[in-house]
Amino acid sequence: xxxxxxxxxxxxxxxxxxxxxxxxxxxxxxxxxxxxxxxxxxxxxxxxxxxxxxxxxxxxxxxxxxxxxxxxxxxxxxxxxxxxxxxxxxxxxxxxxxxxxxxxxxxxxxxxxxxxxxxxxxxxxxxxxxxxxxxxxxxxxxxxxxxxxxxxxxxxxxxxxxxxxxxxxxxxxxxxxxxxxxxxxxxxxxxxxxxxxxxxxxxxxxxxxxxxxxxxxxxxxxxxxxxxxxxxxxxxxxxxxxxxxxxxxxxxxxxxxxxxxxxxxxxxxxxxxxxxxxxxxxxxxxxxxxxxxxxxxxxxxxxxxxxxxxxxxxxxxxxxxxxxxxxxxxxxxxxxxxxxxxxxxxxxxxxxxxxxxxxxxxxxxxxxxxxxxxxxxxxxxxxx
Length: 384
Ligand SMILES: Cc1ncc(COP(=O)(O)O)c(C=O)c1O
Known about the structure:
Layout (H helix, E strand, L loop, with lengths): L5 E5 H14 L4 E5 L1 H5 L3 H8 L4 E4 L2 H9 L6 E3 L8 H8 L2 E4 L2 H9 L6 E7 L10 H12 L4 E8 L11 H11 L6 E2 L3 H6 L1 H7 L2 E4 L15 H4 L5 E13 L4 E2 L5 E2 L4 E6 L16 E4 L2 E6 L7 E4 L1 H6 L8 E7 L5 E2 L1 H7 L4 H6 L7 E4 L16
Parallel strand pairs: 1-19, 2-3, 2-9, 3-4, 4-5, 5-6, 6-7, 7-8
Antiparallel strand pairs: 1-10, 10-13, 10-17, 11-12, 13-16, 14-15, 14-17, 15-16, 17-18
The structure holds pyridoxal-5'-phosphate (PLP).
The site of pyridoxal-5'-phosphate has 12 residues, from helix 9 and strand 9.
């Protein structure tokens, strides 16, 4: 028997979250961002739920290849463009659209021998100061691309740094609009936070939005808002089982470093999940966990393969727990109770993005294709 830990990907939640994005920006086409192996969910596993997207955006050419192998014939956008000249051959062969963010990428295109001109997304650095041409250099980069026979369509792109916070997107949007004002071509703007928090501005300006974390059911502006506020559902549940129970006396300690010391007699459960599964080691005593759907807390230090939880709230609620009891680390418990990944991430000083993407390879993953969605039973066989 494998260890009882398992992640479940909920196709119906992915589908519903994509609908939520469409509701926010009904006139925009939607890129489903599936970089980092679909934020840890697995590209092949999210395809069913996200098939309604207008295109998929990612970074890795290998992941783009996988999408084509899985039968996706629609648009694929390389968000960082090509990394070396021969990547352009793959773009031609697979019909990939790609971002152009620097002169070197234009040089590679100019030297590329192809019969099939390519569609590119010219990226402006409107304030994030990661990738892209500065606003004052944007038009000359556009003119260079426009003169190349290797390019058949130029779209315009920028990325917001503060859509989730009080600075918002106004300043960057103003810079982008000023520098791009009369340039032809479709515009792609807006990550999840911009889609949810600045829907009107994004809707007016963008032909395409780029939705990432919202599709996976994590709130981009937690803790200001949670997933419930935005009407999104977790696309991943990480669950395991109790392997043991210990009864502590006052003064007993738990785990490496004896970080937790019982103030009074206490029953704890020992769950088959640790940092080698992707659960953050930085989660301290108090991090929320569900046991048999009842909310309780982590106690002591997370170790490589195990973590320990306080069973007192279950005793108080009259819910039995012991060997084999269900432990939900994040997502939806079998009975329907919910633990948002964002709460766990916050306890670890991290964000939902990081926890999802860090799911370890050794965790088997199943796809829940049930139309009624998470928490309602029916999961497929684990596929890794
Ligand atoms: C260029 C670009 N667009 C869109 C996204 C999607 O962001 P989010 O997951 O916040 O929706 C990302 C993710 O980092 C990105 O790098």
